[in-house]
Amino acid sequence: MSAVTAAASPESTDIGGVAGFFVDLMDTIGGPGAGIAVAAENVFPPLPSELFLPLAGFSASQGGMTLAEALLWTTLGSVVGAVILYWFGAAVGRDRLRAVAGRMPLVKVSDFDRTEAWFARHGTKAVFFGRMVPVFRSLISVPAGVERMPVATFVLLTAAGSAVWNTVLVLTGYSLGDNWHLVEGYAGVLEKVVLAAVVVAVAVFVVVRVRRERRGGRGRGAHARH
Q1: Are residues 176 and 54 in contact, defined by beta-carbon separation less than 8 angstroms?
Q2: Domain-by-domain residue ranges, the chain?
Q3: Which has more confidence, 150 or 215?
Q4: How far is CA 142 from CA 16, 112, 134, 191, 205, in A?
Q5: How many CB atoms lie within 10 A of CB 209?
Q6: How far does Cα 106 stand from its chain's mean position?
Q7: What residues have CB less than 8 Å from 109, skipping those under 6 apart?
Q8: 9 pLDDT band (50/70/90 cuts)?
């Protein structure tokens, strides 16, 4: 049993299923395995980057790969996964998403248009900083594809933002050694905070929209009586 496999199986960390498969892959082929794991995490956000990245750092500290290889392969994996989602957004296209938005309850096409206009103004910052925010790390690639952000620009921003996020988690795992799995707990708290903020934002949007629709309905009814 290698150091990576042994460290991936402490009593406090039970890794199985798909995540366990990628841990084994990283254990078997080193840096490329870490890159594949991170690429998969980008395409399928439920896979935990807060598991794979610190583990890659720990592997580097144990000689499974060099630190430079860990940083290079994980960042390359982030870019590959992001590009896949970029092309998914490009394939779906603006018109289809606009039509879907128009059929969603409490959502208007004008909401989509405003979001599109916002992305046109702030898309570069959104892609760069979005790579450092749990959940949105993957999702931000889709609107970039829908809006057909220049591929070179998207790749450069994604690589830069991913390098920051990956370096923090890889170096933390490298420094913590056998306690690398502690990172997962702290990163999980951050993810919960982000999700809670999203839930609150959605709830506020729904309440405001429902109240506006009700006021509009009463206004139209009063106008019809007159």
Answers
A1: yes
A2: 3-181
A3: 150
A4: 29, 14, 15, 20, 22
A5: 15
A6: 26
A7: 98, 101, 102
A8: very low
